[in-house]
Prior knowledge:
Layout: H1 8-34, H2 38-50, H3 54-62, H4 69-81, H5 83-93, H6 102-109, E1 120-128, H7 131-144, E2 148-153, H8 161-174, E3 178-184, H9 189-192, H10 195-203, E4 206-210, E5 231-234, E6 238-242, E7 261-262, E8 265-269, H11 271-288, H12 292-297, E9 310-317, H13 325-336, E10 340-344, E11 348-349, H14 352-363, E12 367-373, H15 379-386, H16 389-394, E13 398-402, E14 406-407, E15 410-414, E16 418-422, E17 426-427, H17 428-433, E18 436-441, H18 444-459, E19 461-463, H19 466-470, H20 474-484
Parallel strand pairs: 2-3, 3-4, 7-14, 10-12, 11-17, 12-13
Antiparallel strand pairs: 1-8, 1-9, 2-5, 5-6, 6-8, 9-18, 10-15, 13-19, 15-16, 16-18
Helix pairs in contact: 1-2, 2-3, 4-11, 6-13, 7-8, 13-14, 15-20
Amino acid sequence: MPETAFSIPALLTALMVALHWMIVVGLGLRIILKRRPTGVSLAWLLIVVTVPFAGAVLYLFVGELWLPRRRIGRYTAFKEAISDQIEHIDEAWDIKGDELSTLARSLNAQANNPLKISAIGGNSIELYDTSARCMCSIVEEIDQAKLSVSMLFYIWESGGDVDDVERALIRAVGRGVACRVMVDSAGSKRFLRGKSVRELRQAGVEVVDTLPAGILRALFARIDIRNHRKIITIDHSIAYTGSMNMVDPKLFHVKKNVGRWVDVMARVEGPAARVLDMTLRLDWAVESTDDPREVGALALDLPIRGAGEIPLQVVPSGPDQGPQIIHDMLLTLIYTAQARLIITTPYFIPSEAMLTALTAASKRGVRVTLVVPKKIDSILVRHASKAYFEDLLDAGVEICTYTGGLLHAKTVTADDEVAMIGTVNMDKRSFWINFEVSLFAYDEQVVSSLRRLQAGYIAQSEQIEPQAWRERSVGSRVIQNAVQLLAPIL
Length: 490
């Protein structure tokens, strides 16, 4: 009677295959039940099926957008603690809809951001088109600060002009000014491990990192959710925000061969500066305290004075803070624009809705210009981004590739009515995953000033010719379209 021989390697292989398909079925059902955009679901299904086990682990770590309940609870409690301040600003400085242009009115009506504050008047704004000019202004304002200096950055890297800022903070804390620095734990990893942070802390500057990342922490929270905001507030009445990290572009990432980073920052005075201050304070409180009274009491009695007549709208966004608001506001902006739309962004991976909106705007006669850097520091994003160009070019969108460095400015101007400056890239990570902040200005002069900066970027760019792009090599097409399959999760 013949014996049935079982090979141990064959048995193990069979068990591994069976386990893999059990995981595929289980996670596949979970992905389908989540009912996310079709491209996102298909991309994750592809990864889970084609990359055994590792794909499943990757999905469990970063496939779903979630934060610890304790963190969400703290944020909700802290926001409630400053509700009186929010209500006061809204009542005293709210801009009525009929005081705004048609385009601005559409955006303002859509405001449903975490602080529930729509467009507010009484502001002044100044744009800085170079990091050097902005750094000098920041140092001067820190040296003049009387009460407090608070700073929040995704990336902080000492050296060059940043050393001047650090010395100004040490001088300020030495004369009794409360100085706080918050940095993202992943983006500012080198700074947090360096000697500068020790010197700042020894001098009395409070330094905390937000959203700590690590392998063990990945078991309890999604570690690729980052705080991508850039905010500085001085004496609760002056604020800076925009695309600039706390780095010196002469030194930052010089070995990556993409040129110096080019940014734009806005200096704000008036009620909008207080809203930016509250945004920063909420982030600080979530990381540093469990007592809502601390964030509620801070700056409660300080008066809010008008500094101009410009209507501004501050829009924070994040996983637990209106995660889709900025994406939807930009869709409204694109669909409502009538004549001219210019967008500058370093990373361009649009949602299907965003791509449709841009092509539709161009087809109905809006002159749409997209400005992106010719060289960027992410190979995957570079190829995925280019996969969308043909659809845009066929619709008549002008695409310009900036040659003067890594254009890191995130700006939008629409007609002569709306300007947007902020930290949001035109990609899914900024729209749905990271904590971001955007500043909308509903003022013709501000639009004109920002458009002059955008015109300067376009003048240093090469415009892509549609016919030449269609004739690019088959190899380029294959690479770009293959990487585009991963675009929904990049």
